[in-house]
Write a structure and sequence with these properties.
The protein is mainly alpha-helical and about 230 residues long. It contains seven helices and four strands. The protein has one domain. The strands form two sheets. A two-stranded antiparallel sheet has the order 1-2. It starts with a helix and ends with a helix.
Length: about 230
């Protein structure tokens, strides 16, 4: 392989090549887990949403629409379904942020009665935060999973280590588990770790996720110390 060819392959790896078809099942499994996590929250943390089952029911409905429309692999022609996917992720995010606000209010202003239950409730909220932003990263990077299958697509919004490391597979492309891992490390470290945001929206989303995770951990730890004390 000539130096010019090697540089071309390295540039393709760095700036994104055409992605293969992705199966929808890991994403659907993550959505189901997020819905289940919402249902195990105490009633007082979902009171701001009206009925406890309103948003989960809407999320299940959108999930059924996606399953009926395309139960298997995501193809490049299904961009019309992207609005449904974005709406589903938005509902999960709104529900989780509402529960987080209710949790913070309850931890700061309620008595110690039920304090342990509220501390335990922070776990599904934190996990849903990881899932929701993993879904956002996956859905929006380079225009979405369908757009990433096109020969020509938008430049990447995230720089994964495999896209820049010397000797990495030049044919590598990120899949949903890579975006989920990015969301997990961002929520754990409160900042990007090995994957860097490259665009304004990706930086904004990572900042919002870090802020939500930091507030959750800080408030819960302070309340847990009071309970133990």
């Amino acid at each position: 392989m000539t130096d010019a060819s090697r540089r071309e392959r390295e540039e393709a790896a760095a700036w994104g090549i055409r992605s293969p078809r992705e199966t929808r099942w890991p994403v659907l499994a993550a959505v189901v887990v997020a819905i289940a996590l919402q249902l195990v929250l105490p009633v007082r943390l979902v009171s701001g949403l009206g009925s406890r089952y309103l948003l989960p029911a809407l999320e299940v409905l959108l999930l059924v629409v996606l399953l009926v429309a395309n139960p298997g692999q995501i193809n490049a022609e299904e961009r019309r379904l992207r609005a449904v996917g974005i709406m589903l992720i938005a509902l999960i995010t709104v529900a989780n942020f509402t529960s987080l606000i209710e949790l913070i209010h309850a931890l700061l202003y309620s008595s110690k009665t039920g304090g342990r239950t509220l501390v335990y409730a922070s776990v599904p909220i934190w996990l849903t935060n990881v899932i929701a932003f993993g879904l956002w990263f996956w859905e929006l990077d380079r225009g979405g999973p369908a757009a990433r299958q096109q020969p020509v697509h938008r430049r990447p919004d995230f720089l994964f280590p495999q896209m820049a490391a010397a000797g990495a597979d030049p044919e590598w492309t990120p899949s949903f588990d890579d975006y989920l891992y990015t969301a997990f490390t961002n929520a754990t470290a409160f900042s990007p770790t090995d994957t860097m945001p490259l665009t304004g929206w990706s930086k904004l989303l990572m900042a919002l996720q870090s802020l939500a995770s930091l507030i959750t951990v800080a408030v819960v730890i302070s309340r847990a110390v009071n309970i133990l004390g």
